[in-house]
Amino acid sequence: MAQIHIKKEWKISENLATSESVYLRRREFLKGTALTTAATASTFYGCGPSTPPKVLPEVEWSELEKSIYPATRNLSYELDRPLTPENIASTYNNFYEFGSDKTDPVHYAQKLNIRPWEIKVGGLVNIPKTFDIQDLLKTMPMEERLYRLRCVEAWAMAVPWTGFPFKELLKQVEPKLEATHVRFETFYTPFTAQGQLAFWEPWPYVEGLTLKEAMNDLTFLATGIYGHPLPKQHGAPIRLVVPWKYGFKNIKSIIKIELVDYRPATFWNTLQGLEYSFTANVNPRIPHPRWPQTREKMIGTGEIRPTILYNGYEKFVANLYK
Ligand code: MTE
After folding, report:
1. Distance (Å) from CA 161 to ligand 1 centroid
2. Does the residue 158 lie in any domain?
3. Is 5 part of a structural domain of the chain?
4. Which of 25, 120, 230, 261 has its CA 20 to 30 A from that of 80?
């Protein structure tokens, strides 16, 4: 599938950032399977805009959201590098439901309807509950945190998320003693999210953590970024943020959370287990077959930095892996 790309100066070099999906799709295409659906998907991916819009799509704010953002910053989480400018972070996204090019989600994710939005929390809990996003916004202790994000594709960014610690949600449902893991699931609406038409991929996007990881102070559910509600391309209305793990663990637009007593299957691990582990902790000593894991490139500035164990969050999480 030949595509002509006019390279933007802020784009990182292709050898650092060939997306997982492009790579995996190419193999599938070569196998010659599923021609009809492949044709549909390639129309969607091949002809989409390959440049970010000049004016970013507007984020709608409700009265409730105006009273929440910007939230007070929690100063326990410091950065060692400048924040990534918003116009870079919000136009360079991985959200394969809305395309495999980094600039696709800012266009296509705008189709996602994020109100009403419910998150069903169940499985091995004493009090299963379905939360409306509005109720979460009203009742959860909202704060801002500056976190680094390191993608397995060797690019990185540093952004201010707004949201609440995941353990606050868990407290409300009371996990049972037998629960060992948490499973997260994204919506499944292939007619608006046409990436999900690729039936050879295990949609919907799912992710998982051990319960201990989920209870860690760093584990965060974000509803906002840069002092306002999350734009759709970042995973509105609610997404996971686990900054010591590779970016693909940070599942977007969550509709379901289940407490389970087994290690749940995850999207990328199911597609290509040798490249994407379940644990996926940032670790420069574990090589990846396609991307260098000892260094990373900051999107926006192109600065190259050494990658640090647990993405620099060792003091918060090292005890989980002893
Ligand atoms: N969540 C869903 N539902 N679908 C996705 O394709 N991509 C993941 C993660 N969450 C993804 C997802 C990957 S690979 C990365 S690097 C981060 O989202 C990127 O988050 P950002 O676009 O907000 O920077």
Report:
1. 14
2. yes
3. no
4. 230
